[in-house]
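Q: What would this chain look like folded?
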Amino acid sequence: MSFILNLIGDLKPLCINVKDSPIQTIGDLKYYVEKTYGISRDEQKISTYSGKYFKNEDKLITSIGPQHDFQITNLSVSVLGGKGGFGSMLRAQGGKMSSKKTTNVESCRDLQGRRLKTINEATKLVEYLNKESERKRKRKEEIDKKIEEGLKVPSKKRHRFDDMEYFENHDKIMENIKGAVSQACSKGIQKNKGKGKEKAKEKEVKSLALW
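A: My prediction, written as structure tokens:
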């Protein structure tokens, strides 16, 4: 039967064979640890994994029990406390934390263990899929409307111009242009007639010269 004691720090565990060892009580074990490792007996605390502390008069073989072959324990050292006031600090911090109210509960879980964020996202996805047909219908209506607007012939807008002064000036300018063109044409005709007479006279003179 073995009594195993996990020491503090990097020290290796201490294994004691209860039947053959002179160490039979917790007090003897503390004395051995003090002598070997220099840890004071008054500061040593030996406990099981469940947190039960042993007394100095407790026997090692009794702690193991008749139905087990070994007992694993831990060695801890008592540490001096501070000046106090830790409880008041906790109460003050608790008041500050309670004053900060939050509405974000998505990290919480329901009774089935699912996160509320996952449930909300799944609900939103279902609603989105249910409205897919409606979104397709609206998209098709928008496309059909654009096609109809593109096929329509744009109507020509007629603007009425009622500036009488502009019309009078326009008529005067057109008359002046017609008069100038007619004068130019008459002068050109007269010049062509004069040149034709001169050419006829030259032909007659040439013919008389030949005779």
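The chain is about 55% helix and 10% strand.
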